[in-house]
């Protein structure tokens, strides 16, 4: 999950963790949440299992990044909002709206701009 600098700072304050403990920069220089080595899920998901249907709870729910708030809606290659094929529960969500696409495009633009500023 990509993060803005403000989101990573908010998560660091909330958890008391250094940003480097829960993020990495991808090949485009975008700050991204780490996954737990054991569960292969987000480091902030409280679960002991790597099963995609396992019970789990977000430990930073009230401070979660915008991308987490909009998931399972993601951008397609042609900048349309779609349901992520990797989401095991995508059938439980309504089709994405134009507002979802606008929100995701704005977020993507902000994240890309920040990665270029570094």
Protein architecture, described:
With 118 residues, the protein is α+β, with helices and mostly antiparallel strands. The protein has one domain. It is 34% helix and 14% strand. It has four helices and six strands; from the N terminus they run ααββββαββα. The chain has a two-stranded antiparallel sheet. The chain has a two-stranded antiparallel ribbon with strand order 3-4. 14% of the residues are buried. The mean pLDDT is 94.
Radius of gyration: 15 Å
* Count of β-strands: 6
Task: Report, as a whole number of angstroms, the end-to-end distance.
Answer: 19 Å
Structural class: alpha+beta
- Beta-strand percent range: 5-15%
Element-level helix/strand string: HHEEEEHEEH
Which descriptor suits the 3D outline? Answer: globular
Biggest sheet descriptor = 2 strands, antiparallel
Instruction: Report the mean per-residue pLDDT as an integer.
Output: 94
Low-confidence stretches: none
- Count of the domains: 1
So how many helices? 4
The strands making up the biggest β-sheet line up spatially as 1-2
- The residue fraction in helices comes out at 25-40%
Task: List strands and helices in order, with pairings.
Elements: H1 5-15, H2 19-22, E1 23-25, E2 31-33, E3 45-46, E4 57-58, H3 66-70, E5 73-75, E6 81-83, H4 98-117
Antiparallel strand pairs: 1-2, 3-4, 5-6
């Amino acid at each position: 999950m990509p993060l803005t600098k403000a989101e990573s700072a908010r998560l660091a304050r909330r958890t008391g963790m250094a940003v480097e403990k829960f993020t990495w920069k991808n090949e485009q220089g975008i700050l991204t949440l780490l996954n737990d080595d054991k569960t292969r899920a987000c480091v902030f998901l409280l679960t002991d299992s790597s099963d995609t249907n396992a019970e789990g709870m977000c430990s930073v729910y009230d401070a979660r990044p915008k991308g987490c708030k909009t998931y399972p809606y993601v951008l397609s290659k042609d900048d349309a909002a779609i349901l992520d094929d990797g989401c095991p529960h995508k059938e439980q969500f309504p089709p994405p709206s134009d507002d979802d696409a606008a929100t995701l495009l704005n977020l993507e633009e902000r994240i890309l701009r920040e990665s270029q500023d570094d």
